[in-house]
Hints:
The structure is a single chain. This protein has a single domain, classed as Glutaredoxin. A five-stranded mixed sheet has the order 1-3-2-4-5. It has four helices and five strands. Helices cover 34% and strands 29% of the residues. The protein has helices spanning 11-15, 31-46, 62-67, 94-102; strands at residues 3-6, 20-26, 51-57, 75-80, 83-89. Keywords: Disulfide bond, Electron transport, Redox-active center, Transport. Belongs to the thioredoxin family.
Amino acid sequence: MAIQxxxxxxxxxxxxxxxxxxxxxxxxxxGPCRMYAPILEAFANEAEGKVSVIxxxxxxxxxxxxxxxxxxxxxxxxxxxxxxxxxETGILPARTLRTLVTGEAE
Length: 106
């Protein structure tokens, strides 16, 4: 279970609990989102079992997108124990993702 896809109906359930959850807001028409997808996929595979990675399609899930004031995509949110800890717009390099999630640089 590398990347999960969230909907307006199941988003809160997927980010609840202990641990770290990385959430990517995206759309199929977004070029930078398509460039970010392989970075997230590799990160999800590398961090499997330690970090949950979730994608939210902004076109299909407007309620969740509005709830987190997503105005530009791709946007990445990082939750720690169900609490939003970080929000960034744009493509995050894998190294930055690792640092944000683990607190350690390579």
